[in-house]
Amino acid sequence: MNQTSHVSEIARPRPSSNLAPGPKGLPFFGSVLPAWRDPLALMTTSRETYGDVVRFKFGPFDYYLVTDPDVVRHVLVDNAKAYTKSRNYLGLKIVLGEGLLTSEGEQWRRQRKLAQPAFHRSHLAGFADQMSRATRAMLDRWRAEDVGASRAFCVHEEMMRLTFRIVGLTLFSADVDGDARDVGRALDTALRWANDYAESLVRIPPYVPTPSNIRFKRAMKTLDGIVYRLIADRRAQAAANAGFGSDLLGMLMAVVEEGDGASGAGKGMTDRQLRDEIITMVLAGHETTANLLSWTFSLLAEHPEIEARVRDEATRVLGDRDPVLEDVRALEYTKLVIEEALRLYPPAWMFERQSVEADTLGGYSVKAGSIVGVCPYVIHRHPRYWDRPDAFDPERFRPERAEGRPRYAYLPFGGGARTCIGNHFAMMEAQIILAMIVRQERLALAPGHRVELDPLITLRPKHGVRVTRRPAGPTGGHFGFEAT
Ligand code: HEM
Description:
Layout: H1 32-37, H2 39-50, E1 53-58, E2 61-66, H3 69-78, E3 83-85, H4 90-96, H5 105-115, H6 124-144, E4 153-154, H7 155-172, H8 180-199, H9 211-241, H10 248-258, H11 271-302, H12 304-318, H13 325-330, H14 332-344, E5 351-355, E6 359-361, E7 364-366, E8 371-374, H15 376-379, H16 399-402, H17 423-440, E9 441-445, E10 453-455, E11 459-461, E12 466-471
Helix pairs in contact: 4-8, 6-7, 6-17, 7-11, 8-9, 9-11, 11-14, 11-17, 12-14, 12-17
Bound molecules: protoporphyrin IX containing FE.
Protoporphyrin IX containing FE (HEM) binds next to helix 11 and helix 17.
């Protein structure tokens, strides 16, 4: 049983100062340097040293790290109207434009309403089939090309390619596998640029032709080219068949045609708006899930007994079949493993808000314009809510162990109105991919390979996850592998 106390620190009496404690850092720069060097260490040690509301100075900006679930709820839910996304999203906004992740207010509300039906339960069976088929194609290629048999390969690259293909198939009915390499490189360049832009105290606008800006522009051209091609292809198909289709792209495009051009709910989308929505879904919908799977494989490689349980479950539930929607619920242990991987390595390791008015967080005054950082990475390892926080223990997600744990002690998909629109999609995808791979293959970390954290916009494995592969056997049936 979890022996940790779930009582909020914030309920305890506060010292007389009304400003939250925190590191002083250097004059003017504050904590910029340690945040740039190792943000995870800075956030972790600051919570340990100063408590659940920590005040940093980043140049002229006040920044508050909040790690108490009640305070998190206050920011994301109870007083959400007092917060917008933070100025640190500006870099991302230059990449994604006004898509669902970065838009605000009425525009965001309208976009969310438009996109929501594409994730409705009625689409899940179709999604599960596509996820299953794409994973089968990858596994067949691994075998046909002997991937990882004689030489280590990067399973993270494979997961990026697979989840990218799945987003294309499920949300845009397009097979984008041929674009995976170009998009992967371009997104990497664009996101590193956005990250640097967010972290810079002095921001050089993207139109200034610095080497980094030139690389960024080139990457954006690649991404835009692919997205505008998707839009043009669908227009051509729609003209031929008189319909846009019922996937996300079709729904968004139908609005363009049916809209009356007036403001409000009937207003259509321009190609630029469509581009913003598509590129947002491509980014938000594949890199996060790929990171989750890569972390899960690295954890399983270190915990063969847990890997064996996932394999047993997959074999028992699926036999030799590939999964369909009805199987997902039965892959119970697989889900616990994924939940625990999301706890230890939350792909959205940090997200932020900016206060539009003064507020009080855990008894401390916060000025309007302050940035508030919600850090799932730190919250998920908070010893008040998690017993042996650094241990990989999927069983802690069994309902009896989770009892009494505050809702916002675990938030890999965020919370409140801006919670992840793809959370069920991502969980189902991860369950299907993990079960299929583990049933059939044993992935072992390549000798000498160390998996390191790279906390960019998402939490990535720095040098990928290099593994070797051998058949899991004995499976009998259509895999036909020898027992090992
Ligand atoms: C393991 C996978 C995923 C994780 C950990 C994750 C995490 C998150 C988090 C934490 C947020 C909230 C950010 C904030 O409040 O600032 C978010 C928002 C979002 N996610 Fe995900 N996500 C995942 C998968 C997906 C998938 C598969 C899709 C789409 C297919 C998706 C699309 C989005 C979008 C569009 C938003 C913005 C929602 C809004 O503001 O209305 N995500 N995600």
